[in-house]
Amino acid sequence: MKTVLMVAEKPSLAQSIAKILSKGSCSSRKGLNGACSVHEYMGTFSGQSMRFKMTSVCGHVMSLDFIGKYNNWDKVDPAELFSKAPTEKKEANPKLNMVKFLQVEAKGCDYVVLWLDCDKEGENICFEVLDAIEPVMTRPYGGEKTVYRAKFSSITDTDIWAAMSKLGEPNRNEALSVDARQELDLRIGCAFTRFQTKYFQGKYGNLDSSLISFGPCQTPTLGFCVERHDKIQSFKPETYWVIQAKVFKGKDSPLTLDWDRVRVFDREVGQMFVNITKTSKEAKVESVSKKEKAKQRPLALNTVEMLRVASSSLGMGPQHTMQIAERLYTQGYISYPRTETNHYHDNFDLKGTLKQQANNPFWAQEVKALLSEGLNRPRKGADAGDHPPITPMRAASEGELGGYGGTWKLAWEQACLYYQLWVDQICFTEVMPWLGIPVEEAMPVCERGDVFSVEEVKLVERQTCPPDYLTEADLITLMEKHGIGTDASIPVHINNISQRNYVTVESGRKLKPTNLGIVLVHGYYKTDAELVLPTIRSAVEKQLNLIAQGKANYQQVLQHTLDIFKRKFHYFFDSIASMDELMEASFSPIAATGKPLSRCGKCHRFMKYIQAKPSRLHCAGCDETYSLPQNGAIKLYKELRCPLDEFELVLWTSGSRGKSYPLCPYCFSNPPFRDMKKGMGCNECTHPSCQHSLNSLGIAQCVECEAGVLVLDPNSGPKWKMACNKCNVMVHFFEQAHRVQVALESCETCEASLVAVDFNKTRSPLPDGETQHSGCVFCDPVFQDLVELKHATMRHPSMTRGGGARRGGRGRGRGRREKKPKDKMAALAAYFV
DNA sequence: GCAAGGTC
């Protein structure tokens, strides 16, 4: 029997589509990567009975990068990234093993139907899938067609069946346009980012950003924020005048009237009007009109709108909102949270969805009333053909969801919004008071011809106010309007400009550009304003669309656009001095930053420690900068020196739970031995005899990770510990010991290095009042109760075994240690060979 | 270490 393989873009869609096509009768299993499922059923394909296997990828299978050697920032000229540097496709997420998974499932299949999302990215993924599976699929007889594309516009029975009955082919041109975008984004983004970063970080010490990045989406996003900042800065308040009149009727309290001309900027004109009205003691109602102020019912919720609402009325950032929405989705409270669609299909079960909320204590009454009165159709929105609008699927209570920051708030908000779809103003403000119309002062009833007495008429002087900083919600709207980013990437771009220290999030989720953000954008304005204009994205996309529509050649468009940006890059490179003038005015030269910390091994003068990101050491004598680990504290380590290069060692301490190790500032960037990599401290150094090295302080193979070694932290007493030099495993031992040393001998049972411990007489936990003992941390019965496993950071629930309770070391470490523990003599021997 | 785009 023949088999048809079908592939969707994500696991949730594979499931929904399989359910529809199998009429609910498919059997499901997990794939080998644990993330994707395979749904199998019997059906007919081109008139024959066949086996169907429906599965999915998780977004892109591959992603584009430069080949390895072009990722060395020190050796590659960024200009080479425009043409010379070759690119390659790498698996987008190696942990998912997607290529292998697809091949296992595709082996022996006769046909493939591609159910990827119906957009250009989806078309591109079609070919990524085909590249992976075609080599393992059964070869067709003659020229039989075996590859099909399903085009669907919604996940409904009718649409999915319709798509299945008229299968087409994947569109190569659309896929190519995405290939071109990827290559352009990579080459342009990386070239500018590397050049800027190296140039400015080599000169200034207080930029406080680990990266001075540039990108066709993030830079215009920053541009919007700075543009508003400039408007605020250049704002000159203007004086204007308004006429204010107070009138009253009988015993009613006076009514303040607004002027229908609003304001004048010429005082004399205003005064003239006041003079005219001053002659009258009475005011007659000329006409009466009522303005309809009832708010329109909202549209059904799509991703971007959810982000806007969450930011403006819940104070939740877009990235956070997406995380919470994802969680609500996986727990079954809401439908798929990434959708552009804000319109419900005619056959969507609106009533059933509402019934789910009928027992929720917050709005049970309103919901029941609605159900009995009957529903209006929600307002008509746009159907992007991806997923239904974000919909509450299950009633939630605060008790269930209160635990995670904002989860309950977001669930509640979404249910409210769903509820609003049918309800008019008066009704939905009962559940969402903040959407109500502000209660205006009671208007006295008046009719045409009514006469009021004039209490006073005066000219009031006022000043125009500057605009405020952009809110996140404003920014999202601007990005959407200019086509910067997508619903899924908008939160990422906003997060980026904040992480890079270009903007800060102020109260009310207003985005205020930092000095760095302002100087960058002003610098682009000065050299090449196009780099920061929102049109930079749309101009490129216009070119890409030509490829997608088959109107232009992929290679030609790519070359042409790359040429333009290559020229822009060279121009930017040549005019960097004019941007640098702005930098000079705002930031301090690297030599004038930081405080003296440790001595340079070359000139033996003090180097300065620069704490601002990226934290580093700078030697003014040699004019050299040495990188340091980020996210931790650095201090001098007892003025001890590296025996290889005489640089003074520094001690790095992590913020959480105090993992620490010494490192040599020179070796950190220039690994001294062949088996070492950049970014290693003394706890990974294979120096054969240095007292700070892995060789001297390493005790045993890590109890959890494959490659790590537990290394004594010589600086940790009196709360002694050893920590894995690769993962976050930490073993606390011998608390209050006076001295802990790693002995030369190894344990006969497990080959861990023996440890010698000295206690003070009064505090010794050793039997018989002994103060010294030497033995294996894992096997020695005397040490059994003095060893406790912990983690530097509790990241994963599965890693909390031990849970802080005191546990014996015996057996546990050994049981997990399948690999041969580190043999110090063998390591030494290897080094000398 | 870099972009933007999918998605977990």
How is the secondary structure organized here?
Elements: E1 3-8, H1 11-21, E2 27-30, E3 37-45, E4 48-56, E5 62-66, E6 87-91, H2 98-106, E7 111-115, H3 120-133, E8 147-149, H4 157-165, H5 172-201, H6 218-233, E9 239-248, E10 255-257, H7 267-278, E11 282-284, H8 303-314, H9 318-330, H10 350-355, H11 364-373, H12 398-401, H13 407-420, H14 425-428, E12 451-463, H15 472-482, H16 490-499, E13 503-506, E14 510-513, H17 515-528, H18 535-548, H19 554-574, H20 576-586, E15 595-599, E16 606-610, E17 616-619, E18 624-627, E19 632-641, E20 648-654, E21 660-663, H21 665-669, H22 694-697, E22 698-701, E23 709-712, E24 721-724, E25 729-733, E26 739-746, E27 753-758, E28 772-775, E29 787-791, H23 812-816, H24 824-832
Parallel strand pairs: 1-4, 1-7, 7-8
Antiparallel strand pairs: 2-3, 3-4, 5-6, 9-10, 9-12, 11-12, 13-14, 15-16, 16-17, 17-18, 19-20, 20-21, 22-23, 23-24, 24-25, 25-29, 26-27, 27-28
This protein binds one DNA strand of 8 nucleotides through residues 9-11, 35, 57-61, 63-64, 66, 71, 73, 78, 81, 92-93, 96, 117, 121-122, 124-125, 178, 181-182, 184-194, 197, 210-211, 213-218, 326, 330, 338, 485-486, 488-489, 492-493, 614.
Look at the helices and sheets and give the structural class.
alpha+beta
Low-confidence stretches: 794-833
- Number of discrete helical segments: 24
What is the oligomeric state here? single chain
Family: Belongs to the type IA topoisomerase family.
Domain Topo IA-type catalytic: 171-569
Domain Toprim: 3-153
GO molecular function: DNA binding; DNA topoisomerase type I (single strand cut, ATP-independent) activity
